[in-house]
Amino acid sequence: MSLPDNPIPRRFYRVAFQRLEESQVLFGAGYNIGCVYLAGYAVECILKSLILNSLPPKEHSAVESEFRGQRAHQYEWRRNRYAQTNAPSLPGDVSKALTFVSTWETSLRYKPGLGEPDDAIRFLNDVKHILDWADSRV
Q: Residue 43 to residues 10, 54, 58, 108: CA-CA distances in angstroms?
């Protein structure tokens, strides 16, 4: 795992992998909804890191301010914002994984119960795939 050189994308990158690790702990404890909830933030953060890392550092603060509010939680918005950076397009397998995890939403925090383990496994596997690809991009 390599880190982005600049501090703002590096922070999002580090948080992405931390949220993935936390989600795996929740999964191991049987908290499948919590697992998916935190894993969704891992993808959100890694996409933000990729967006920032593909831009000149002088633009980081302004672009980071775009990450506030409800739209910043929307995968399609982040996917489109990534495409605007002229970074290489997402490979088909990563795009497919991102399409699946885009079912994630912040309202999961209000869903009671433990959730289905099979759903959490699939979600975690796709999240890991996205983060592995993103790690190779840095």
A: 14, 17, 24, 15
Residue spans of the domains in the chain: they are 7-137
DSSP string for residues in 11-69: HHHHHHHHHHHHHHHHHHTT-HHHHHHHHHHHHHHHHHHHHHHTS-GGGHHHHHHTT-S
Q: What's the CA gap between 81 and 78, in Å, rounded?
A: 5
Q: Which of 112, 106, 115 is nearest to 27 (CA)?
A: 115
What are the tokens at 133?
């690809």
The pLDDT value given to residue 113: 80
For the whole model, what pTM was predicted?
0.87
What pLDDT was estimated at residue 87? Answer: 77
Return the C-alpha torsion angle 95, 36, 63, 91, nearest 10.
-10
Residue the block writes with tokens 């501090």: 7
* Residue 95 or 113, more confident: 95
The topology (CATH level 3) of 7-137 is: Four Helix Bundle (Hemerythrin (Met), subunit A) (1.20.120)
